[in-house]
Structure formats: C-alpha cells, structure tokens
C-alpha cells in the first residue's frame, strides 16, 4: 500500500523509534500527527519530518498515561484531520531493573499506565477515525520482553505481555472491518530507553550495549513502514526484530573491547 498522503499518527515521537518512525514515514510522503510529553522536541521532530518529505507534520502534547490528555489530544487531532490511516502506539518504556522484592509502586504504576492503559486509551480514542476497508492499521510497538520474561524486569515484561494481549484481542474485535492490527516486537535497540530505565544514569545505560551491535531506531522504523505498507489484504500480525548479536533475550554476543 502506498503511504503517500496517508495520515499516520505516532505516539512517543519525541525520541527513539517514534522520532525515527516519523522520518521514515515522512520519506514515504505520509502526513504525520505526532504526540509525546516533551513538546519542544516534538516540534523539532515535526519540522525535520516536513524537511524529510512529509506534506503535513503536526505535533501536540500527549501523555498516554492520562485519559484527560488523550481526550485533549484527540479534540486537537479532529481539527487537523478526520481520518487516521495508521495509528502507531509506540509511547512507553521501562522504569527500573530490580527484583519484585525491591520494586517501586511508582515505577510499576507508570509502566502499566503508559505501556498497557496508554495503548487501550489511544486505540479507543482514535478507532472512530480509522477508515473501514481501506488498509488502515493499528501498529503497536511491543517487545521481545512480552515473549520471554527476564529476572528484574517483571513489571516491564508484564506490561509488554499486556500490549501483546491487547493486540491479539483487538484483531479479533476488528475482524470484518478491514482494519489491520499488528505488533512489532523489537529486541535490544540503543535509544533513550535505557537512560530512562536507569533514571538518567547514562553510563549504566551505555553498558547495556557494550560490545554489541544493537538495533538503531531507524532499523525499527524501517520495519514499521514495511508492516504498514503491505497491501490492504495483508496483515503482518506479529514481527520480532532483534540484533544479530542477540540470539535470545539472555544470549547476547559481546565483543571484547
Ligand atoms: P525512547 O525512550 O527513546 O522513546 C520513548 C518515547 O515514548 C519518547 O518519545 C517519550 O516521549 C514517549 N513516552 C514515554 N512515556 C510517555 C507517555 N506517558 N505519554 C506520551 N509519550 C510517552 O525509547 P524507545 O524509542 O526505545 O521506546 C519506544 C517503545 O519501544 C517503547 O514502548 C519501548 O518499551 C519499546 N521498546 C524499546 C526497545 C529498546 O530496546 N529500545 C525494545 C523493545 C521495545 P516523552 O518523554 O517526550 O513523553
Ligand atoms: C526492551 C528490550 O530486552 O530491554 O523492550 O526488555 S529489553
């Protein structure tokens, strides 16, 4: 399906996969609507996306962890367009890497709010704008953490398993509408993800990728565009994308310094 002039909404577009996704869809000539909490960065990404070929790239503050913010965003969105062809539910991330015995309520709650309830809220709010039988797609960004839980990551893994369950339920609910529903599940990718997880500790974040050639945000953005641009009768239900160095969540090849 050609993406030129299609309307693509990306949540969490101020950095990482969302920002790279904006550039990749822009290069296809898509019209973009971007949301995240850091408005300044979001507006910069929108300007870069216009320079990269998006005929329209609009941005508005969005906190997917708040129903009020999602409603405000969608009120604004309806003034920009009455149609969204591709909804990319990407906003979210991890907070902390601790055993359950040491977990913090505020981290658990923030992850569930953004990674699980955020996907539900955005999908409920945007579904009325998705055209029937025209190749529309809800594309959720999951994680390999949904498929293989790891120690010290219980709440994050649970939140991403929740995202995968939502994806699978939604596909059943929308059967017959022509709206495609997919989950794109990346492995290790170097973005701001680990800096956020470790609450600003950049050197600890850097060590996650030591000796590894991780995915870049642009690799994941390529996969987003590929999934969304299949013909309307083709739905890529689930795609796992990992660095070649990461054979499995616990099996990562690291080169010595
Ligand atoms: P980044 O931290 O670089 O990007 C996360 C984006 O989500 C930012 O734009 C951030 O913007 C936004 N965001 C976070 N919380 C909210 C919120 N409550 N409301 C709105 N926007 C929010 O990380 P990634 O690009 O790596 O992460 C994107 C997605 O990919 C996440 O869902 C993450 O779990 C998932 N993922 C990441 C992997 C990795 O290894 N990097 C692997 C697998 C999945 P702002 O702070 O401005 O709101
Ligand atoms: C991010 C990948 O392996 O750090 O979802 O959980 S991982």
Structure description:
There is one protein chain. The protein has a single domain, classed as Rossmann fold. Helices cover 41% and strands 16% of the residues. It has helices spanning 16-27, 39-51, 67-80, 105-126, 154-173, 193-197, 202-208, 217-228, and strands at 7-11, 31-36, 57-61, 86-89, 137-141, 180-186, 238-241, 246-248, 251-252. The strands form two sheets. The chain has a seven-stranded parallel beta sheet, with helices on both faces. Strands 8-9 form a two-stranded antiparallel sheet. β8 and β9 (251-252) form a beta hairpin. 44% of the residues are buried. Bound molecules: NADPH dihydro-nicotinamide-adenine-dinucleotide phosphate and 2-hydroxyethylsulfonic acid (8X3). NADPH dihydro-nicotinamide-adenine-dinucleotide phosphate binds at residues 11-18, 36-38, 62-65, 90-93, 114, 118, 141, 143, 186, 188-189, 191-193, 196, 217. Residues 11-18, 36-38, 62-65, 90-93, 114, 118, 141, 143, 186, 188-189, 191-193, 196, 217 line the site of NADPH dihydro-nicotinamide-adenine-dinucleotide phosphate.
């Amino acid at each position: 399906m050609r993406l030129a002039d299609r309307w693509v909404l990306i949540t969490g577009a101020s950095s990482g996969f969302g920002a790279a996704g904006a550039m990749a869809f822009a290069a296809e000539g898509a019209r973009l609507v971007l949301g995240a909490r850091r408005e300044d960065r979001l507006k910069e990404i929108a300007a870069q996306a216009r320079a990269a070929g998006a005929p329209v790239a609009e941005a508005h503050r969005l906190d997917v962890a708040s129903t009020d913010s999602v409603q405000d965003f969608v009120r604004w969105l309806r003034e920009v367009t009455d149609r969204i062809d591709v909804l990319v539910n990407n906003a979210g991330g991890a907070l902390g890497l601790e055993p359950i015995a040491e977990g913090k309520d505020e981290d658990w709650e923030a992850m569930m709010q953004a990674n699980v309830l955020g996907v539900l809220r955005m999908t409920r709010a945007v579904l009325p704008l998705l055209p029937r039988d025209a190749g529309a797609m809800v594309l959720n960004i999951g994680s390999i953490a949904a498929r293989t839980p790891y120690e010290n990551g219980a709440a994050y893994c649970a939140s991403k398993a929740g995202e995968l369950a939502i994806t699978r339920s939604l596909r059943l609910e929308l059967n017959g509408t022509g709206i495609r529903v997919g989950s794109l599940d990346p492995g290790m990718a170097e973005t701001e993800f680990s800096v956020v997880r470790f609450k600003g500790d950049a050197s600890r974040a850097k060590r996650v990728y030591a000796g590894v050639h991780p995915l870049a945000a642009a690799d994941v953005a390529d996969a987003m565009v590929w999934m969304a641009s299949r013909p309307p009768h083709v739905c890529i239900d689930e795609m796992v994308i990992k660095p070649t160095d990461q054979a499995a969540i616990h099996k990562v090849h690291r080169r010595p310094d």
